[in-house]
Amino acid sequence: MSVRLALRSFTRYCHFSAEDSKWLTLPPVNITSVNTSSNQLSSSTSTTALKWVIRCCPELPKTLVHKLFRLKQVRMLPPLQEQEQDGKFIKVTPKDTLNAGDRIFLPHSVKQQTPKRLDSPLTPTLTAKQIHFIRALVIYKDPQILVLNKPPGMPVQGGINIKWSLDAVAAECLNYECPESPRLVHRLDRDSSGILVMGRTKTSTTLLHSIFRDKTSRASDDNGTEKRILQRKYLALVLGCPRRSRGLVAAPLGKVVVDNGKSDRITIVDNSTSLSPQHAITEYRVIASSSHGYTWLELSPLTGRKHQLRVHCAEVLGTPIVGDYKYGWQAHKKWGHFDLSNLEDSTEELLKEEALPFGLNLNKGSISDKRPHLHLHCKQIVLPDISQALQNVQSLSTLSYDLSAVKALELEADLPPFMKKSWDVTNS
Q: Could you tell me which residue ranges the Pseudouridine synthase RsuA/RluA-like domain spans (predicted)?
């Protein structure tokens, strides 16, 4: 797409507001989405601020959209409010719910930034070897969804200084007979591995988004008696062993800025802090312990917070995940078996011994190596058969449909080679 055509498409959605030269005005909210409260497929007239911006401004890079929210440069004006309150718009976060008629305002400067970002393609052209590698990751495919076994070391979503991401390469080579490109519905950390679900149509993506989002929003009220329509199980190798062989971790998480604003990290917070905590709940059970001091855990997140499993393991259970140097640095240092010098250069060393496309080397990184990779793998997922559900309804605007009555899909993903090696070592 040319820069001129991209700008024409962009300005068609984000038009200039004569009220204030600093802002671009998006169209008033008017959308029907899915609400899966009580496992029901039903209609709604609300959406999140992030989704509305992405829908109205498809030519804006997602990294730029997320940056605008992060810098608090996205504002809102309710439909009945014709003038600004005290001369200021309402600041909006990505997850804020918008209702019909709400108007979103973006900084006028994004109009100048858009052509510069659109001038280069999202990802270089893939080679035949790379296409074959990505297609070999597919473990399940039907007309509505696509499920991959994500390799560790490959980011799920593009961003600054990221050459290859799964969402970009999937759009290029995983369309198959579908006219639309597969879309992300949830995330996995760059260094983790395992099951990644993608929607193949706009309808299935909307429904999957609702299922994953609803799982988190309702987890705090779940008393264990209601059937969960979405279940995920991770396998993790940790340093040490929890005091109890199984249990439930319910510890709220919050983000703190470190290194003079250069980076951030997630940590356990409480109501006495100035942070806004997000409830996070994880079930765990010990699978096996070894004489070497390692323990294999099965982790079942009931919520989907950033770095939830890593923080719960490190800060609550006191058993950080092997290869998690962000939250388990001190534990790895005390362990004494690993070379922790020049950790930032470890990726470059792997590239020198590239064994797979995209600079990946899945054979190195076990506990037998000097620098183990993150030992966190999403091994299983259970979710409703979306294809069956959508066959039974004409559209998402139908009144109601019970997703718990739909046949469940149970999918599993094999461990990456370096984790298999660690498994063999700890169980020898």
A: 145-314
